[in-house]
Structure formats: C-alpha cells, structure tokens
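TASK: fixed-backbone design
INPUT:
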C-alpha cells in the first residue's frame, strides 16, 4: 500500500527533516496527507554563554553549560534563532496524527531527532524514518519501514558534545590569558594545527643537499614508430657497482644517510660525462614484469574531499557544500560516510552502465565487493554514489557548474569500481659502458605499457604530488634485448637539490588525520575551516601555512597540556568514544576520569580510559606558564621572534637597553621564510614614531607612525586632555598619500594632510564644495553629491572653477569604465571563461565574468596561482548567491474612504494589539542585550568545538 493511500486512512503525518532544500525534495515524493517541514539544523544545544542558561543554575554550570558535579548533566537550551521555528513545528504537530523524524542517519542526525522529540513532546505516535538517498522509492520505503530512535547513538553524540565543551571552555581561557584574547582550543582542531606547525618546524630545520647525476640519451640505430621508439632516456644508476646517490639518500640535515652510496658533486659529474662521451654502450639486461592495477574503491567522505581537491581544486568545505546540495536534491547518496560498501542495487546499476557504455569486455564476471571500512566507522551508510537503481549519466542530470563536475567525479568513480583490472607490462632496461678512465657506468630506464585499460577508461585517481606520474601514463621503450649495441647521442650532467617536506594541503591534511585516526572524517571540513578562520593557518596557493600565532598556541599546549595534543592520546580518546557508542564503556565514569582525574573516578577499571588525566587540575594551576617564554622563538644572532597581542614582531636586546631593536613581522610571512637576513631587513626599515616638529598654531607635537592600516600622521595632545566623556578631545589624524613614506614626510606635509577636508568654495546657490580623502580615494562633496577626483594631489590643487566644471558634467550612474585587469590567470575549468584578478572597491578579487571572489588576507596579487583563483571561485559558487536582507514591511495602506467607517473598530483593536506586541519585543530585547553583555567572556569560547 502506498504512503498516500495509507495517509488517507490514517490521517495527517508530519515529517521533519533538517534543511528546507531536503524538505522540498521529499515533499514531492509523498502524498497530500504529508506535511514536510525543516528544523533548519539543530533546534537545541548547549548554551553559548551564561546569559542563555536558566536562572536556577549558578557557578560553574552557568559557565560551562554542563553540571560536572552531577554526572555531567548537560544544560540544553533552544537556540534563540530557532524559537520561531520550534513554535511553527509545535503548531503543525498539534494538527498531525503521526510524527516522522527524518533527520540524517548518523550520530548527529540521531541527536537532532532526539532533541526534536524532547522539545516538541509529541502526544501522537513517533517514528524514526531513515534513508541514505533521496529518491521516490527510498523515501516511500523509509515511511513504510520506520524504526525506533537509537538511544545508544544519541548518548554517544552527547558524550562527544560534552567532551568538546569541557575541552574548549577550559583550555581556551588559558590561551586568552597567556597568548591572546579570543583564541580557541579544540579536541581535534588543536591537534590538526599541531600537525601543520610540526611540518613547518621540519621545513625550518631542513638543510638542503646538492647532488649530481647523469642522463643519457641512447639510440638503437633503427627508424622508430610509436610502438617501438628509436631512442630511450636513461639515468646513471651505478659507477663501478656503487649506487649513485639520489634525493632519498639524504636526511633532513643535508647529510647522507647511507655512506655506501656514491655522492657525485658537479666537478665529478661533469668529468664522468666527458669520460663517457666516446664510449660504446650495450644493453646488459631487460627485465619485464606483468602490470596489473585494480580499480579504486567508491568514494567515502575523505577520499571524495581529497580527489575533489586534486582534480577540481575544491577545498574540503566547498566539496561538502556542493555534495550537500547534490544529496538534498536527490542526485547522490548521503555524503558523510566512512564506508566503501555498495548496495546490491548500486552494484547492479554500475554493472549495467559498464556494459552499456564500455561493452561486456570491461565487465568482470563477478561483482566487486568493497567491504573494508575505516576503523570505528559509523554503520549507517554505504559509499557515496549516484542515487537510484539506475544511475543518471552526468549529461542526463541537467546539472551545471560545480554540481555537475562533482557529480561527474562521483559517477565515474562508482562505475569504474565495477570494471575489470587494467593490465600491461613494466620493463626495466640496464645499459652499461666503460669510461676513458676505466670506470664502469650503468644506466637504467623504466617503461610501462598498458595492454588493456580496464577501469582506466572511466577513471584515474589524482595525486597530491604535482610531479607524480598518474596510473594511466605509458612510457614506451624501444624493443631491445640483452647484448644489443646502443649509441650515446648525448650524456649530460644534471644538478639537483633536496627539497623540504611539502606543506600540507587540505587534501593531504585530511588524509593524515584519517590515517592517524584523529577525529571523525565527517568533521574534517569544518575543522580545517575553523583553523583557517581562527588565523592559526593561512593559504599560499593550496598549501596550508601556519601563522606565528599558531606556533605560540601549539608551544603552550605541548609544554603544559602535552597529552591533549598528543596524536596517540587523541586517537585513543576516539576509540573510547566509539566503545561508549557500542555499549562497551560507560560515558559518565569516562568523563569523570577525563575531567577530574583518577581520584574522582572511583570504580573505573583500568581499561576504561586509563590514559586519561584530570583536565580540571591542568587548567587550574597556571603559575608555571611563562607567557613571554611560550611566545618567543629564537631566529639567530640574538634575534628573537615574539608573538604579541597585536601580532608577531622580531626583537634584539632587552627593551629600554642600549642597542635594542624591534620591528613588526608581516602577518602573511611563512615562518620558514623568517631568516636572520630577513629580520635585519625589517630592523633597517623605518618604524616606530617619527617626530616631525610642533604645530605653529597649537604648539602640539606632530608625529608620523606606521599603523596596522598603513602610515599616518597625528598630533600629540597635552597631558590631562580628556579622552572620554562629553569633553573628550580627539587628536587630528590623517593617512599618508600613496606617494609619501614615513622617512620622507615633512611637518608641512603633515599639517596639510591634517587640514583636510579643504573648502574649495561655494557654488552660485551658496552650497559649500569640499575636497576630502575617503576610503575609496579622493573626492569632492557638495551637499549629498560626491564626485571622484583623479589623484590625491588634487585635494590641495583643485580650484573652484575646476570643481564647478566637474559638477557641470552629468553624474555618471552605474559603473565607471572598467579598469584593466591586474593579472590574467587562465581559463576556469568550470565556467570555461577567462579568469582575471581585478581591483575593486573592497580590494583585489578574482572573476570569470560570472562569479566574483575577494582575495583573502594571505593572497597576493603578484603570487596568486591559477589554481588558487579557481579554488576561490569554486568556494564562492558553492556558497550560492548572497541572501538579500528583506525590507521591513511598510505601514498598512489606508482603507478606501467608503470602507473607513466600517473598519474603524477593527483597526483600533489591531493597533492596540500591535503596540502591546511591540512593547513586549522591546522589553525582551533590552533584557537579552543586558544578559548578552554580562556573558561576553563565556560566549567567546562557544565556538571552541572539536
């Protein structure tokens, strides 16, 4: 029986999902007897500050939102921005005969469903409706086969939430006191930051080594063709049987790890090349092995993020945003999954498309099974794949842009997973010759031929290393046999230098976190977003670069909260949380052990988290933490990098001592680029305060300074001048022109700058015209009419006649003539339109003519790469168009005259009611504001999650 006919007999059913988009899609698959509404995410959570905690709670409970003294009881409150939605859901429920909770089938979704049930308090039957794809059949099957709420999953999610709250709310204030206000710590974000910082430390400690080898181009003497080339390129492998050193043979200190290898320098390499120039060469051996490559498993969350980064240039966050839209609109299965398993239906659909698109030769006899899962994977889902029992090809979807590209990636990977192996041969050829000085030299060349491409016809996985060779690349060698003579066309000496370990990209950091079993794969996108937003990490191209601030934070955490950022400890905590989810451990004793330590956790067997300590004790005793020490890092030659409250700076010598030097360090400088030489350059730059002289009128000293927003001049007010209150006096201040600099600006320049705005004159009607310098450049102002000037110098030189001439011209409406682009980046792979960098009102931005994306703080016009430009555009597209603020409704129009009398009483009633409501809202607003102000400090830690 269909859901529609059931409804006709059973009354009205309310179905609650998380998002409006999901609600809209599901509504189309259910009958008229169903009402589908969104909760719009979580409706209830731990409070964001003391102001949100009910008045009956006091002390630590108000600060933490968790009653640690009474079995870690969480205090849940309905989010302020969800109260109206909760009211709406209650009204809909009152008119319904059954309630279906259709949130996502994972811990987070189960927790949302539980909170809905707790808040709505339904008096009608409640069902948990679960599905992992939004198709007509899946939705109707979910309605027909509901289950009960899984309380074990709810408890597991609640334990994670409490743990993350305790971690964030207890450790973050330590960072505020010892490093900088408004910082945050989190169970996974702090460990992820440490990984990025440790990689930068490795780069700083790295010492490059130079090494040389030879490359030979050898010919067979035959006419070649594509299947049998006439030449091959081989690299020197051994000299007199001793292997020639390559990059892998050197350590991070630049020294050889294996003394048995031969380290060639430039002189020796060139001498050997000259000695081999006239030598005869022959093939010593040909080794051929069969090549076989099996298809990659279907996508799970992390592998999708990695491939979307490599192939599409998407960040993890952008990938998940696009995937969410595809899921909610019924194109793919649920995108937060740890599983690589495909359902029987999906396997049949994939195999059908293999036969249809590639032929029966590409279909294996038996279906491929990918049963392996990530450790502690959530059991809810299958792999990410196209939805339905028949996969739509990308062309059939009607999708465009980023959604089309991500769907195509998922579709190709899924279909390829059910295809035959790729097969071929790999060949190694060894070529030998004797140099004039008698030394024996052996070169090697490797080749690969693919005789049957198999799954590679559909899909080939990308690589994190841009220089890596992809699986489907062939390298054909000439058909030679041992003993064949070869002629050396050219032998060249090549120099190389070892490189420091590559910085993490979003893709490689996701991979590292998963391999170390830190955190949940479904949270990695938000974790990376958090460390970027917090300023712990910034991007250079696709590389994740730690800021100096993150060095100070990680230094403090390592020295005083070592276990909390220990990789094994964090992985063990993840194991413990999963044991709790499986019912193998109890949440409350485990939380007691974590928070209070072993003394308070009576009755806990050692297996229940014996690696845990007491967080409370750790954050209470802060006396041993030296704030200056944990934020100081030696650069060399007496120079120290310090992280201050207003940013990083370098310093030499003690403050107020003779020879003391100090200079600010650019926020976007990569830590491994801060050398002694660079620090000396910073010291040499003009900085600090430049005394320009006294204002002849006021007698106040005029100084030039370098501020966070650029160089400026200002006056020094006499001591005792009121700075606050009614009689406060503000010093005159003005930014330097672009053509000026701190070391050349004069007192006259400063006085002229501070004299702005300048009155140019008045027009015929007596309206004053002034010349002013504003945020967007110099301009004229007459009443409310502003006109731009061409240069800053015009502020002092423009005459009244020239100003009147400008105003006599019609004002240009809309946009001015487009400025030429600052840089061209290439063709965007999504829109296939040229991407350029332009200068806008709010700074430089990238555009393809359809989408604009502002450059981030750490992006530079000169160094931005095409890939970074495409990534910014992809992120902007994933967010969708900006929401326009709705205009407030205007006052109701007056009723027509002939209806006025009849409507008077009703209107009076409505007016009275409206006034009462408005008064109530105003009073509530004031109360809320007062509470919020009182709870500012607590709220600052609210985002310190995970």
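OUTPUT:
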């Amino acid at each position: 029986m269909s859901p529609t006919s059931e409804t006709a007999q059973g009354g009205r059913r309310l179905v609650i999902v998380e998002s409006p988009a999901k609600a809209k899609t599901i509504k189309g698959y259910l009958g008229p007897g169903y009402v589908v509404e969104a909760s719009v995410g979580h409706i209830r959570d731990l409070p964001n500050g003391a102001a949100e905690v009910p008045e009956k709670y006091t002390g630590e409970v108000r600060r933490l939102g968790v009653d640690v003294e009474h079995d870690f009881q969480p205090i849940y409150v309905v989010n302020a921005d969800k109260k109206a939605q909760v009211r709406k859901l209650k009204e809909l429920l009152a008119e319904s005969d059954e309630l279906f909770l259709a949130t996502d089938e994972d811990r987070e979704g189960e927790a949302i469903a539980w909170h809905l049930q707790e808040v709505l308090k339904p008096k009608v039957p409640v069902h948990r409706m679960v599905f992992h794809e939004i198709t007509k059949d899946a939705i109707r099957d979910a309605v027909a086969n509901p289950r009960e709420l899984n309380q074990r999953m709810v408890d597991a999610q609640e334990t994670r939430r409490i743990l993350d709250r305790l971690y964030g709310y207890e450790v973050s204030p330590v960072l505020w006191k010892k490093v900088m206000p408004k910082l945050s710590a989190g169970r996974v974000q702090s460990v992820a930051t440490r990984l990025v910082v440790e990689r930068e430390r490795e780069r700083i400690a790295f010492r490059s080594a130079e090494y040389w080898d030879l490359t030979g181009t050898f010919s067979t003497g035959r006419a070649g063709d594509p299947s049998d080339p006439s030449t091959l390129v081989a690299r020197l492998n051994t000299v007199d049987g001793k292997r020639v050193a390559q990059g892998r043979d050197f350590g991070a200190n630049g020294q050889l790890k294996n003394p048995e290898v031969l380290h060639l320098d430039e002189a020796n390499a060139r001498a050997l090349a000259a000695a081999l120039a006239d030598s005869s060469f022959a093939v010593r051996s040909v080794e051929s092995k069969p090549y076989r490559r099996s298809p990659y498993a279907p996508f799970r969350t992390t592998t999708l993020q990695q491939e979307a980064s490599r192939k599409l240039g998407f960040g993890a966050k952008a990938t998940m945003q696009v995937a969410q839209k595809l899921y909610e609109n019924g194109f793919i299965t649920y995108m937060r999954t740890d599983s690589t398993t495909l359902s029987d239906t999906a396997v049949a659909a994939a195999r059908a498309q293999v036969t249809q698109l590639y032929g029966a030769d590409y279909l294996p006899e038996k279906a491929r099974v990918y049963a392996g899962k990530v450790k502690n994977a959530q059991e809810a889902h299958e792999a990410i794949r196209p939805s339905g029992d028949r996969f739509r090809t990308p062309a059939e979807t009607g999708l465009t842009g980023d959604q089309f590209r991500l769907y195509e990636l998922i579709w190709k990977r899924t279909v390829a997973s059910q295809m035959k192996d790729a097969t071929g041969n790999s060949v190694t050829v060894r070529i030998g010759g004797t140099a004039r000085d008698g030394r024996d030299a052996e070169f090697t060349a490797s080749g690969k031929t693919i005789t049957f491409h198999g799954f590679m016809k559909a899909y080939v996985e990308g690589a994190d290393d841009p220089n890596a060779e992809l699986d489907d690349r062939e390298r054909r060698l000439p058909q030679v046999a041992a003993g064949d003579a070869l002629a050396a066309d050219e032998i060249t000496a090549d120099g190389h230098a070892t490189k420091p370990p590559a910085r993490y990209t979003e893709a490689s950091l996701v991979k590292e976190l998963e391999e170390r079993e830190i955190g949940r794969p479904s949270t990695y996108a938000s974790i990376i977003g958090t460390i970027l937003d917090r300023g712990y990490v910034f991007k250079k191209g696709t590389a994740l670069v730690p800021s100096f601030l993150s060095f100070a934070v990680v230094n403090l955490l390592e020295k005083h909260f070592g276990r909390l950022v220990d990789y094994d400890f964090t992985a063990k905590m993840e194991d413990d949380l999963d044991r709790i989810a499986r019912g193998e451990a109890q949440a409350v004793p485990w939380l007691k052990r974590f928070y209070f330590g072993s003394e308070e956790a009576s009755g806990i067997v050692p297996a229940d988290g014996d690696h845990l300590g007491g967080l409370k004790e750790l954050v209470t005793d802060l006396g041993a933490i030296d704030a200056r020490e944990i934020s100081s890092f030696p650069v060399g030659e007496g120079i120290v990098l310090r992280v201050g409250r207003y940013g990083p700076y370098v310093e030499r010598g003690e403050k107020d001592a003779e020879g003391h030097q100090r200079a600010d360090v650019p926020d976007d400088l990569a830590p491994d680029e801060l050398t002694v030489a660079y620090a000396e350059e910073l010291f040499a730059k003009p900085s600090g305060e430049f005394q320009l002289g006294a204002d002849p009128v006021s007698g106040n000293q005029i100084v030039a300074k370098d501020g966070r927003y650029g160089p400026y001049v200002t006056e020094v007010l006499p001591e005792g001048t009121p700075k606050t209150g009614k009689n406060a006096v503000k010093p005159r201040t003005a930014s330097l022109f672009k053509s000026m600099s701190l070391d050349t600006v004069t007192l006259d320049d400063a006085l002229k700058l501070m004299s702005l705005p300048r009155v140019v004159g008045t027009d015929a009607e007596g309206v004053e015209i002034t010349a002013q310098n504003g945020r967007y450049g110099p301009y004229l102002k007459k009443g409310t009419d502003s006109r731009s000037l061409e240069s800053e110098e015009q502020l002092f030189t423009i005459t009244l006649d020239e100003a009147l001439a400008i105003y006599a011209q019609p004002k240009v409406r809309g946009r001015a003539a487009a400025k030429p682009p600052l840089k061209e980046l290439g063709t965007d792979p999504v829109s296939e339109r040229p991407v350029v960098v332009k200068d806008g009102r709010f700074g430089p931005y990238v555009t393809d003519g359809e989408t604009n994306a502002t450059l981030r703080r750490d992006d530079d016009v000169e160094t931005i790469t095409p890939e970074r430009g495409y990534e910014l555009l992809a992120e902007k597209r994933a967010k969708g168009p900006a929401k326009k603020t709705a205009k407030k409704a205007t006052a109701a129009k007056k009723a027509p005259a002939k209806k006025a009398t009849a409507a008077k009483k009703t209107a009076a009633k409505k007016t009275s009611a409206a006034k009462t409501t408005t008064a109530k809202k105003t009073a509530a607003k004031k109360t809320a504001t007062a509470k919020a102000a009182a709870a500012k400090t607590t709220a600052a830690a609210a985002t310190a999650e995970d």
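COMMENT: Confidence is low (pLDDT under 50) at residues 1-8, 600-611, 885-943.
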